[in-house]
Amino acid sequence: MDGILIVMSGFSGAGKGTLLHRLLDDYEDFAFSVSMTTRAPREGEVDGRDYFFVDKEKFEETIRNGGLYEHAQYCGNYYGTPKAYVDEQLKKGKSVILDIEVQGAMQIKEKFPDTLMVFVTPPSIAVLRKRLEGRGTETAEVINKRIDRAKEEVNWMDKYEYIIINDDLDTAVKEMHDIILAQRYQTKRLGTFIDEIKTELKNI
Amino acid sequence: MDGILIVMSGFSGAGKGTLLHRLLDDYEDFAFSVSMTTRAPREGEVDGRDYFFVDKEKFEETIRNGGLYEHAQYCGNYYGTPKAYVDEQLKKGKSVILDIEVQGAMQIKEKFPDTLMVFVTPPSIAVLRKRLEGRGTETAEVINKRIDRAKEEVNWMDKYEYIIINDDLDTAVKEMHDIILAQRYQTKRLGTFIDEIKTELKNI
Fold first, then answer.
1. Is A15 helix (H, G, I), strand (E, B) or coil?
2. In this predicted complex, what is the ipTM?
3. How is chain A split into domains, by residue range?
4. Hey, what CATH topology would domain A5-202 get?
């Protein structure tokens, strides 16, 4: 069976990144789709692991060549999902996780209606604010910008099939894994099996 | 949170009964909805545990009084789901499993669109036939009747959200449990949480 395409979106500060890394560390059958971006690398970020860092010209060329499954602009930078890696991993039977914001997520859902759509959220906005403040690295202005962004993103929450309320990390990792496991038994992914049973019954 | 309503249907001989009993034995948070029927008890069946055994008059009276969530006729007998027990268990937070055939299942889905619909099947019809023959209790005529019935039921398979291919019992029990766990994180069951987040964001 081919792997499953999984989109994870969520409020900034929901702990999506940590959740994702734990999932990839704890379970073998996943691959993380590395996005392409024109934004500058942050401290500690590695090209090809966290992102493919490219300039605007290279990004726009990739768009023109049809090399991306989705792309969006966010805070003045491009972000996109390169096709080749996703295709390769799915064919190997791995489930591929895309960590993308709502605009890109909707593009993926439209192209691949069977995509598993998961939204990660803190238990409340009060907790979100506390977490962002607790990092100590964000200015009040940046925090307010992220809360403003959450005000837009919340309207897309019900376009996702599942919501992970990330209160405790271990629980959230397990929940995410339960959700992914359950996908394998979905009728819409078992079309071939149903056809085989139908054929067998017809020939009796 | 209220419990979830779960409908399990499947081909006769798919091992649905055994699967169901293992699920109830292994996990605490489920209740089994005991159906009402006009058919005679089989060897070893207990009234109130396996079925509520009633006569035709009593069954039809219960229909008239609106006491059933669904009912259907199957091989000349009535089968139905009494409302009171289901309501009571759901309110306690238990998930209630209904073991019903396709006609009744569709009535439940129409009344309660959020019902989790699971279809249990053997890995092939060849295996189904082997299992039915292996019981040693069924005549060739009865076995052929069940295969004929499967020919009708197969057309309803894609009305169910999930399919359990019951090859190995332990695996099937675990799969069923994975599916039920994942339901808790479905967006459609988290309307209250989403509303709370929206209200919090509006008041900032």
1. coil
2. 0.85
3. 5-202
4. Rossmann fold (3.40.50)
